[in-house]
Write a structure and sequence with these properties.
The complex is a heterodimer of chains A (533) and B (312). Helix content of chain A is 72%, strand content 0%. With 533 residues, chain A is an all-alpha fold. In chain A, helix 4 packs across helix 8. Chain A starts with a helix and ends in a 14-residue tail after the last helix. Chain B has one domain: SGNH hydrolase (Rossmann fold, 3-Layer(aba) Sandwich). In chain B, the strands form two sheets. Chain B has a five-stranded parallel beta sheet, with helices on both faces. The chains are: A mainly alpha (533), B alpha/beta (312).
């Protein structure tokens, strides 16, 4: 009876936390944010950081209640290790501490991120000794944001070890650095040298111009997420949910739609996160720079998920290249002295694949990125580096090839995200080349929207019109930012417009966001794609 | 700062106006009142405020009893938590939700029909309904409610009466009859045009019908759970127009596949009142509003009397 009552209370509590789930695109966030920012600037300087930490933990609690202890433990562990590294007297001791700290952080990440993978072979033996490994806490989706905040912490530990940054003595500052609410769930992955000094500065005053720019940035992010990515998700969700039923052009269109959905979802999230931090006067690192206009994979990875790519470069790739680890190998070590750049490149992309997910699909996705990048490197070495100024046709051709290869690799990524198998992804890739009539493609698209959105022809037509309009606007904006603004932020361009066109665009963005928001019923059932990473 | 706040309000004004109209035209001060009465969120909200020990669950065929009549016949209050379009799994989700929260529940009248036993009819909206119960913003942003309220707005602006869609009744003088040829037997009979149209509208559904065995197993399990907790469980199979049975349900093999399941239910601790297949009341053509629903004035009151007298 007691258990039944406790179960009832837990179930009611869980229903309330589910109903008020917090993410950067939830209604709850729109209520939370003005309070968090307003109180921050109203408070005297000495109370600002404690308030920001309370707000951050409040955010995380309502985003993923049961994983708050994991965040707290991870923070405490890496804080203590950072102090130990910073305080170590000898190089050997520093190295020992950093190895211990990073191993601990990686183990924590592995346990909470890959528990589903472990459960497949650990559940039976543990059951036999009475431990219910395959139930409750252990097999639920990985702890929210753990991939991001663990990488932030590991970066900090390496920086302290390399003496690029001093070990943070104040636990509150460090906890805020790891748990800062705009970036704790999905990045951008910040560096201690960039974020910690900003968080520690309590003397900032509210800057209306910067806040307005932050709001513009957020509005652009919401447009990308709600009006573009979430409407594309209706189509991709329906197709990838029943992959065996489709073939030919339908699958190709779904793959392209998913590539666009992923980009607008994650870059939209990044815009919201960066804009939110800007409201507090804090600058987070950029995460995207129009990657779909890159003419080669080297440039692509300098523009896609920049905070992760640069993290991988600084903490995996560069150490692998310069550590001269090959010299320590038996026999081979006597002959191979030159840093193995291509091997390091392959290892970095494979790690990136594993970081993104715990199934073979993600490993293959990572391997494909390695093949693309290494293939390109070999081509450049053989044929020479391409000219900086390309003629427009060659540039367009190269952009299309990079995009096509990326789109196809994402079939593994999407199937992996949905928990599908490599065979299923490979079959979806191959079946793109089977014939299908255009009429059938049209039927597939309308049926997918009817199933995923609303089963009435009028609503399907409205949805198609709206999603195509929003997508075209978003693609134009991306093109404009890349070629006309030369990568400068759209929010700055919006501000530079005259009042009438500026407000017309503002209203259009707000309207599209609202329609997108209603079309997905306020997002009470969905979330950002990288929230599952 | 002031300019910033002014601009934000200006930009959000259209949305604020929209919600002003949204709530205002209904003339209510509280959000739940702005939601049409027969929606699951509203009925579950009422149940949370005033829980009864007896409940009715099911789809639209169970959703429109005159509850005063039900109380008069049975001598006890029931709450009708059935809602239009409910799938079998949604009804079971709703019942599990009740079982987890209301230990005083002691009687469940559960609508079970061939229509919600279809494997492909796998609507799964209860978690969204539950979210709306705990967060009013989920209601404000729910697409279906927004569309429904906009539709009501258009009706009321056009001088129509709200709630008209819930009084499903037809004057027999308005009936037109056509010759209907059964595609299976080739036999031609005279049928009401609207019944023929209704059969056409569900034709694809009945052609692809497959029993949802997983949901049925779940139903049997929950019947046993209720039995173990001392809760009376009455399975009700609502009546359908004889033309639908003869020309759609029987030829497509649905009846043959449903009958063993009805037998399984009779073997379970549940009481089974089958008005759909095996114990069909002699309702006349004009007592049906359409192929599956009784006319609110000429059919439903009679069935309410019949059903709840049996339950009482």
């Amino acid at each position: 009876m007691l258990f039944a009552e406790a179960g009832g209370i837990l179930s009611a509590f869980s229903a309330v936390t589910d109903a008020w789930r917090l993410s950067l695109s939830s209604v709850h966030f729109l209520l939370f944010l003005p309070l968090a920012v307003g109180v921050y600037f109203l408070f005297p300087a000495r109370l600002r950081r404690p308030w920001l930490l309370i707000a951050s933990y409040y955010f995380y609690f309502w985003a993923a209640p049961k994983y708050l202890p994991v965040l707290l433990l991870g923070t405490l562990f890496t804080y203590l290790c950072g102090r130990a590294i910073g305080g170590a007297k000898s190089m050997g001791a520093r190295r020992g501490w950093v190895v211990f700290a990073v191993a601990g952080a990686v183990l924590g990440l592995a346990f909470f991120k890959y528990n589903g993978f472990f459960a497949t072979f650990l559940s039976a033996p543990l059951h036999s000794i009475g431990i219910p490994y395959d139930s409750g806490f252990f097999t639920t989706a990985g702890a929210l944001g753990i991939s991001f905040y663990t990488f932030t912490a590991i970066g900090y530990l390496f920086d302290v070890y390399r003496e690029d940054t001093p070990a943070e003595k104040n636990l509150l500052n460090y906890a805020l650095f790891i748990g800062f609410f705009p970036s704790v769930t999905m990045g951008p992955i910040s560096r201690a040298g960039g974020l910690l000094p900003q968080l520690k500065d309590d003397t900032r005053r509210f800057d209306a111009a910067s806040a307005a720019d932050g709001l513009r940035r957020m509005a652009i992010g919401y447009f990308k997420k709600l009006a573009v990515a979430d409407t594309l998700a209706v189509f991709t969700g329906a197709i990838y949910g029943n992959l065996p039923e489709y073939q030919g052009l339908t699958l190709t269109l779904a793959a392209i739609a998913y590539a666009l959905q992923l980009y607008f979802d994650f870059s939209g999230y990044s815009d919201i996160a960066i804009g939110t931090a800007q409201l507090l006067g804090i600058k987070l690192p950029e995460n995207f720079a129009n990657p779909y206009f890159a003419t080669n994979f080297s440039l692509f990875w300098q523009r896609w998920h920049i905070s992760l790519s640069s993290w991988l470069q600084d903490y995996i790739f560069t150490p692998l290249v310069w550590s001269r680890w090959t010299e320590k190998l038996p026999i081979i070590g006597k002959h191979v002295h030159k840093p193995p750049v291509l091997t390091a490149l392959a290892a970095t992309f494979l790690i990136s694949g594993i970081w993104h997910g715990d199934t073979l699909c993600f490993l293959i996705w990572g391997a494909l990125q390695a093949v693309y990048r290494i293939g390109e490197e070999v081509l450049h070495r053989t044929l020479g580096k391409p000219k900086k100024k390309l003629n427009p046709w060659l540039r367009a051709g190269k952009t299309v090839i990079v995009l096509a290869l990326w789109v196809e690799s994402l079939v593994f990524f999407k199937v992996g995200t949905d928990g599908g198998s490599v065979a299923s992804a490979a079959s979806a890739l191959v079946r793109q080349f089977l014939p299908v009539s255009l009429a059938q493609v049209g039927q597939d698209i309308t049926a997918a929207i009817a199933n995923g959105f609303f089963n009435k022809p009028f609503m399907v037509a409205l949805f198609l019109l709206f999603s195509l309009f929003a997508l075209c606007l978003a693609l134009w904006a991306d093109w404009f930012q890349n070629y006309r603004l030369k990568g400068a932020q759209l929010s700055g361009w919006l501000q530079s417009l005259r009042t009438a066109p500026k407000f017309l665009l503002y209203f259009l963005i707000v309207l599209c966001c609202f329609v997108g928001f209603l079309a997905q019923s306020g997002g009470f059932e969905g979330n950002f794609i990288y929230g599952n990473i | 700062m002031k300019k910033l706040i002014r601009n934000i309000i200006l930009l959000l004004l259209p949305i604020l106006l929209y919600y002003g109209v949204f709530l205002g035209f209904v003339g209510s001060v509280g959000l739940p009142k702005a939601i049409p009465g027969a929606t699951p969120v509203a009925t579950l909200g009422q149940y949370r405020a005033q829980p009864t020990t007896s409940v009715i669950l099911g789809d639209s065929r169970m959703a429109h009893f005159d509850m005063d009549a039900v109380e008069r016949i049975t001598g006890r209050p029931f709450t009708n938590l059935a809602f239009g379009g409910a799938s079998l799994n949604e009804c079971l989700d709703e019942l599990e939700w009740l079982l987890a929260r209301y230990p005083q529940l002691d009687e469940v009248v559960f609508g079970f029909t061939f229509y919600n036993m279809n494997q492909s009819y796998d609507q799964d909206r209860f978690s969204a309904i539950e979210t709306s119960l705990y967060n009013p913003f989920a209601l404000l942003t729910n697409l279906s409610y927004n569309l429904e309220l906009l539709q009501n707005l258009v009706i009321s602006l056009g001088g129509g009466v709200l709630g008209g869609g819930e009084t499903e009744t037809r004057d027999p003088a308005s009936y037109t009859y056509v010759d209907y040829t059964d595609p299976a037997t080739g036999e031609t009979v005279a049928l009401r045009q609207d019944i023929v149209d209704y059969m056409d509208s569900i034709g694809g559904y009945t052609q692809s019908w497959q029993p949802d065995t997983e949901a049925f197993a779940r139903l049997l399990e929950i019947i046993n759970t209720c039995h173990a907790r001392g809760i009376r469980f009455v399975v009700v199979m609502p009546p359908m127009h004889s033309a639908v049975l003869q020309h759609e349900v029987r030829p497509t093999g649905i009846e043959a596949q449903m009958l063993p399941m009805v037998e399984d239910l009779k073997q379970s601790p549940a009481e089974v009142l089958d008005y759909e297949l095996t114990n069909r009341p002699a309702f006349t053509d004009d007592q049906f509003f359409d192929g599956l629903h009784l006319d609110y004035q000429r059919g439903l009151p009679q069935w309410t009397e019949m059903l709840f007298s049996a339950i009482a």
